[in-house]
Write a structure and sequence with these properties.
alpha/beta, Rossmann fold, 2 domains, 5-stranded mixed β-sheet, 4-stranded parallel β-sheet, 12 helices, elongated
């Protein structure tokens, strides 16, 4: 009898240890701790940068739904699209029975999803350190923490290679990078601002204004940046803005106009930051060949 009891206790201990080992506990950008019974297998991602991170960690097959803006890699476009930050389709999402939902901290749906019993991990990087942390946290939730350093090393290698290609004549140039009209700009403290700095450029938007501040157009006119970077559509309409024809960078074509795919990589703090750096370096090489 004692032998049976002892055996049962040993078995219980082994099962408990196995269960504990399978559990995953992570902390998000709200300071919430989330414990998963096992690494996430059915994931809904409601932020493009997090969708891309899951896929870059070789776990795209675990995604069962995404937001409407997630478009990379191409295979995620076949998944159910569940709205975005302001209009998440809660009922459709719940019906997918995810064991983890990835959201932005600012997502309105986060509290309701939690109230419905779903595990919600909120990550919204504002700078380079936050982007690296997001990769590490997602990798941990996937049960593959060892994959994060390898991915981060790949990103860093591409950024360093892009920085090495920036022509000396472009280094130190003042740049204005517009991320959205009205206008919103990438400030020094943002991941994009830090990337511009890595590439040797001087941002006209100081860190004191925040990561992505909405600027008074007069601020840009007074700064007279040597370079202007933005989406192709935004650059096309800039000369029609009151006073913006006075920007010498626009007059002389000292601009980097990015198409949709390149702009997506640039404005998402995810695993394509190396690709973003390469797009900027390519443009700077072209500008360096222009006549003075």
């Amino acid at each position: 009898m004692k032998r049976l009891v002892r055996g049962a206790l040993v078995l219980a201990a082994v099962l408990w240890a196995a269960t504990a080992a399978a559990q995953v506990t992570v902390s998000d950008d709200r300071g919430h701790r989330i414990t998963l019974a096992r690494p996430a297998q059915r994931i809904v991602s409601l932020l493009p940068s997090l969708t891309e991170t899951v896929c870059a960690l070789q776990a795209c097959a675990r995604l069962v739904g995404v937001d409407r803006f997630s478009n990379w890699p191409a295979q995620v476009q076949r998944l159910p699209q569940l709205g975005a930050l302001e209009d998440t389709q809660i009922e459709r999402l719940v019906a997918l029975k995810p064991d983890l939902v990835l959201v932005a901290v600012s997502a309105r749906a986060a509290d309701r999803l939690q109230a419905l019993g779903l595990q919600v991990l909120a990550l919204e990087p504002q700078d380079g350190a936050g982007a690296r942390r997001a990769i590490a946290v997602v990798a941990q939730a996937l049960g593959m923490p060892e994959a994060a350093p390898a991915l981060q090393a790949q990103i860093e290698a591409r950024v360093a290679a892009a920085a090495a290609r920036v022509p000396p004549a472009m280094r130190g140039r003042a740049v204005y990078f517009e991320v959205a009209s009205e206008p919103y700009a990438a400030g020094e403290s943002s991941w994009l601002g830090q990337l511009l700095s890595r590439l040797g450029l001087a941002n006209i938007v100081p860190a004191a204004l925040g990561p992505f501040p909405r600027l008074n157009p007069e601020f840009v006119l007074r700064a007279q940046p040597a370079l202007v970077m933005a989406a192709k559509t935004a650059l096309a309409e800039m000369p029609s803005r009151p006073g913006w024809r006075a920007l010498q960078a626009l007059q002389h074509g000292r601009v980097c106009a990015f198409d949709g795919a390149a702009m997506d990589a640039l404005v998402r703090p995810g695993p394509r930051l190396g690709e973003a750096a390469e797009a900027i370096a390519d443009c700077l090489q072209g500008l360096a060949r222009m006549p003075p």
